[in-house]
Amino acid sequence: MAERNPLFDLTGRTALITGSSQGIGLALACGLAQAGAAVVLNGRDAAKLAAAMEGVRAAAPAARVTVAAFDVTDGAACQAAVARIEADFAPIDILINNAGIQRRSPLAEMTEAQWREVLDTNLTSVFLVARAVAPRMIARGTGKIINTCSVMSEVSRPTIANYAAAKGGLKMLTRAMAVEWAKHGLQCNGLGPGYIVTELNRALVENVEFNKWICGRTPAGRWGKPEELVGAAVFLSSAASNFVNGQILYVDGGLLAAL
Ligand code: NAP
Ligand code: GCO
């Protein structure tokens, strides 16, 4: 194997990636494992996690990988899971808060449940998981926290006000983490995907009109692939970003650059 550039080498580090039983989270888990990290997969479905673990092992046969099934919206479950991971597997050096959902509805018709479920999962959960992990990182004087934001941290479109509010809030929570925790040796940043082909967007990908609109609205002229987010995630997880804090790194095919 070619020598890894030490700046981007994650050997000896352990990463907890929430929402990594599929989609972007699983791609990031595979990529960090290939960069040398031990990875902890998370989701609520044990069967999906078992399949995901096989996927990571196929991508990175030498990597240490385990699963931690818990609901990121449950504060007590987050605390218990993090304690178990650190006791039984390894201290968490890298936390990627990636779990997220989408519940689309015109705002005037949006139910309270649609609002609360998206805000709970896409924003409050990041507070709950970080509250469990950060004190441990602070005690060690080092840590990387990466929050999966979105181009919806900057702009919105009809029917996703709940999601845009959550991701806009997550941009500012990321900056708030950076402001409070940088002095403790933590780097807290956001990863901002554009439109990526995953289960969360299946309905959009399969909609001929929307698909055409997104390919026209994105300067790269196409949807992104989950694995195209790995480079940015490895950068934000590695020594290469030790003086980067409070930034949102967009991987969007140029979407936010275009009117
Ligand atoms: P996805 O394929 O639907 O995967 C979502 C993941 O989150 C699954 O592993 C799911 O597992 C997990 N999850 C959902 N609710 C959870 C909970 N309460 N506790 C623990 N895990 C939970 O979606 P994706 O597209 O990969 O999205 C991943 C992240 O990227 C989300 O934060 C999303 O907002 C963000 N994002 C996506 C795009 C895109 O274009 N796809 C763009 C920008 C940002 P279980 O359901 O089995 O628990
Ligand atoms: C939507 C999509 C978006 C993407 C992503 C874009 O309904 O417009 O689900 O919200 O998932 O967040 O970055």
Unreliable sequence segments: none
CATH architecture: 3-Layer(aba) Sandwich
At the fourth CATH level, what is the homologous superfamily?
Answer: NAD(P)-binding Rossmann-like Domain
Question: How much helical structure, as a percent, in the residues?
Answer: 40-55%
Structural account:
- The chain is of the alpha/beta class and 259 residues long.
- It has a single domain (14-198, 225-257), classed as 3-Layer(aba) Sandwich (Rossmann fold), CATH 3.40.50.
- 43% of the residues lie in helices and 14% in strands.
- The chain is built from 8 helices and 7 strands.
- A 7-stranded parallel sheet has the order 3-2-1-4-5-6-7, with helices on both faces.
- Helix 1 (23-34) packs parallel to helix 2, helix 3 packs parallel to helix 4 (112-140) and helix 4 packs parallel to helix 5.
- The longest helix is centred in the middle third of the chain and has 29 residues, at 112-140.
- The model has no long low-confidence stretch (mean pLDDT 98).
- The structure holds NADP nicotinamide-adenine-dinucleotide phosphate and D-gluconic acid.
List keywords for this structure.
7 strands, seven-stranded parallel sheet, 8 helices, 43% helix, 259 residues, Rossmann fold, alpha/beta, binds NADP nicotinamide-adenine-dinucleotide phosphate, binds D-gluconic acid
